[in-house]
Amino acid sequence: MFKLFLKSLVLLGLLFLGSWAIRSIIDLPYSWPTDAELARAMTLQEKPNQYNTIFVGSSKTFRGMKPHIFNRYVRNNSNLKVTSFNYGLGGATAGQIYGLCRNLIDYDLPNLKYIFYELRSIQTSTQQKKFVKNLHTKRSRLWLKDWRGLKFGINAYWGLKEEKYTFFRKVKFSFYFFVKYIENKLNIGVVKDMALRKQEMKDLDLSIVGNDGYIRIEDDADLIGIKSQHEAYVSDSTNIMNSNRKRSHEAFSPTNKVPGIFNNDAYADELNILIEMAKSKGIRIIFVPHPMLKGNDYKNIRPVFNKLPAKNKVNLVDSKKFPEIYKADQYWDETHTNDKGAMILTKTLAKKFIGIIEMERK
After folding, report:
1. What's the rounded Cα separation, in Å, for the pair 29 and 21?
2. Rounded CA gap, 1 and 266, in Å?
3. Residues 110-158: pLDDT tens digits?
4. CA-based angle 54:58:59, to the nearest 5?
5. Tens-digit pLDDT profile for residues 212-233
6. CB 219 within 8 A of CB 336
7. What is the pLDDT of residue 8?
8. What is the CA radius of gyration of the chain?
9. Of 47, 73, 263, 342, which is most buried by a Cβ count within 10 Å?
10. What is the three-class DSSP state of 87?
11. What is the pLDDT of residues 190-201, one digit of tens each?
């Protein structure tokens, strides 16, 4: 029995070693599963010294943060010098944003000082249909690639307190995470794709990521999903905006308290660990919740936001404090800014950023 166990252990070790060897030989950037993220990674590889500030998040980020506007505003209104890059990923879950940020930290970009991190709720990121679809794609390799990423996923999910997140549901999702982690470690079903991707890298058009990573949503207006979302928003934009103004203020007003059922201490703890990991490399993470959120996401994010250090977060969410952000004509649909809205959102963040740095210098 002991010999059988020992043989199994040796075999498992050889499998992991062989998988590591395959990854090392093919040597793909960590974000190879999607064209846009591969192009962003290759841009950073080609210009490792160019950027000291990077925006990480979902499509809300890559549609909403304009690097050249951010750079110019900071330069014109302070003595700070920033060169920024947009590293948003469409449809990114909380786990994928965590993975992108960790990979940037590990990548050791010599001049990187700031990462603006879109704070996304675990609840939205693990909706049954969307989560399972996302998990069973190569995108999971962005974060479920090591024990640190696996721990983040399991801990953050177990931190959910709403009744619908039952013990058995948490066990099931933890199993999903673990299985996908093993699949990623052993390169199950992707070796051929990895080899093809290595060849495709030679001809990949880096211009697909737009101007320093930012892509105007208007440039993709003819795509079916983007077009239909715009039409739905236009038909009801007043009600949608009034709802977001109300919900954002209720959740993020300093005088209001969010019910304890929305607390997720484990998620906050993981993000605070990430802050320290970045700090050890001379990088500051600044968490930024997006102003336009669906359902209970304002309430989901507020308790986590509260547990982050003041110097590592920016609140652009409260509609009473930032009425200029909550205007219907600045959005393409109910969650994404149009180009005009992106400019205003970017300038507002730049102004808050300058305030944080200058306050520390006094």
Report:
1. 15
2. 40
3. 999 999 999 999 988 777 566 566 666 777 878 888 899 999 999 999 9
4. 105
5. 889 888 888 787 788 888 889 9
6. no
7. 56
8. 21
9. 342
10. strand
11. 767 777 777 777
293 with 241: CB under 8 angstroms? no
* 230 within 8 A of 333, measured Cβ to Cβ: yes
162 three-state secondary structure: coil
Q: Which two tokens stand for residue 294?
A: 């669906």
Closest of 201, 232, 205, 230 to residue 216, by C-alpha: 230
Compute the distance between CA of residue 325 and CA of residue 328 in angstroms, rounded to an integer: 9
Biggest distance spanned by C-alpha atoms of the chain: 72
Burial of 121 (0-12, 13-18, 19+ CB in 10 A): buried
Residue 180 in tokens: 């996908």
| CA distance linking residue 317 with residue 336, whole number of Å | 14
Q: Is 84 helix (H, G, I), strand (E, B) or coil?
A: strand
Q: How many angstroms separate the Cα of 310 from the Cα of each of 251, 266, 293?
A: 18, 19, 22
Q: Are 131 and 300 in contact (CB under 8 A)?
A: no
DSSP H helical ranges for 108-261: 122-125, 128-135, 147-158, 167-185, 191-200, 224-235, 237-252
Only one residue has tokens 């986590």, namely 304
Q: How far is CA 21 from the centre of its chain?
A: 29
Strand partners, 308: none
Q: What is the mean pLDDT of the chain?
A: 85
Question: Is the Cβ–Cβ distance between 328 and 238 less than 8 Å?
Answer: yes
Structure tokens at 292: 């336009």
Burial class (CB in 10 A: 0-12, 13-18, 19+), 201: middle
pTM above 0.85, yes or no: yes
User: DSSP for 8-75?
Assistant: HHHHHHHHHHHHHHHHHHH---TTTTSHHHHHHHHHHHH-TTT-SEEEEESHHHHTT--HHHHHHHHH
Q: What pairs with residue 331 in β-bridges?
A: 337
- Count Cα neighbours of 32 within 13 Å in the Cβ-side half-sphere: 18
